[in-house]
Amino acid sequence: MRLINVAAGQLGPIARAETRTQVVARLSALMRQARECGCDLIVYPELALTTFFPRWFMEDQAEIDHFFEREMPGPETRPLFDLARELGIGFYLGYGELTSEGGVINRYNSSILVDKSGAIVAKYRKVHLPGHAEHEPYRRFQHLEKRYFEPGDRFDVVEAFGGVMGMAICNDRRWPETYRVMGLQGVEMVMIGYNTPVHNPPAPEHDDLSLFHNQLVMQAGAYQNGTWVVGVAKAGVEEGVDQIGGSCIIAPSGEVVAACTTKGDEIALARCDLDLCNSYKRTTFNFDVHRQPQAYRMIVER
Ligand code: CDT
C-alpha cells in the first residue's frame, strides 16, 4: 500500500472585503484540523485567497490586480507555508497569479502544490477558461475569466507525496482531455479546486443538474484513468451568488469515498491508497495495450 491521507479543504464564501490575512486564518484552521486527523495533504479551492472576482466587470487595472498575487509566498500567505512546515502537511492552493518579466505582465488562474517542508513542488495554470471577455448585461452576474486570465498550455504531473500528482482547476474538470493527458503520464491523484455558480446564465436549464454534473465528470475522469480525484469547492452564497459545494474524494474505481456535507468551511477526509490505481491502469485502462491513438487524431487536429 502507498497511503496518502488527504483532506478536501472546502471553503464557504469569501466576501469581497475579506483580507488575505483573514482568509489565511481560515485556511490555517482547516489545515490544523486536517493535521489533527493525520492528513498528509490538504486540497483547497480555486482562487482560494479572494472572492471569485470574475463575477464583476471591471476596467480599472489596479482594482483588478488587487485580486492577484505578485509573489508566492508573499507577506500575507507566508504564514500558511510556515504552518505547513511546522505541522508537516502539504497543500494545493488556487490563486490569481500575476507575473512580470522584462516589463511584460501576464495573469493566470493558477494553483501550486506545496510539500511537507513548505516548498512549492509544482505550479499549474488553468487551461480551460470558461465564460466571456466582455460585459454581458443580460447576466445577473458575470463570468469574465476570458477577460482577466490567459490560458495555461500544459498538464504536467510531478512525483510527490510518494506518488504521481497532477493539478487542474474548475472548468478543466469537465473536459476528458484534462485527465487523459495526465493519465498518459501515469497520474495517481488529480487535485481540482473549483468555484461553480448554481446558476449558469447561458443555460439555466442546467442549474438543477449542477451538482450531478460536478460529480459525473470527476467520477468519469477518475475511473477512465485509474486515478484518485480530489475535487474541492468554494461554496455557498458569495456576494449574492450561490455556488455549489459537493467537495469530494473519488477513488480510481470511480466511487466517492468522502464528501463534504455543508456549504461552509469543512474538511472531508480519505485514506487514499495509490496502489489502488494499478488495478485499473493494468487491466481495463492499460493504455499501452488497449488505446487506439490512430483513431483519435481529430481530437488534436480540430
Ligand atoms: N470557475 C469555473 O471554471 N467555473 C465554471 C462555471 C461554469 S462556466 C461559466 C465551471 O465549469 O464550474
From TrEMBL:
Keywords: Hydrolase. Residues 4-276 form the CN hydrolase domain. InterPro entries: Aliph_Amidase/BUP, C-N_Hydrolase, C-N_Hydrolase_sf. It holds the Pfam family CN_hydrolase. GO terms for molecular function: hydrolase activity, acting on carbon-nitrogen (but not peptide) bonds, in linear amides. The keyword Zinc-finger does not apply. This is CN hydrolase domain-containing protein. It comes from Bradyrhizobium erythrophlei. The lineage of its organism: Bacteria, Pseudomonadati, Pseudomonadota, Alphaproteobacteria, Hyphomicrobiales.
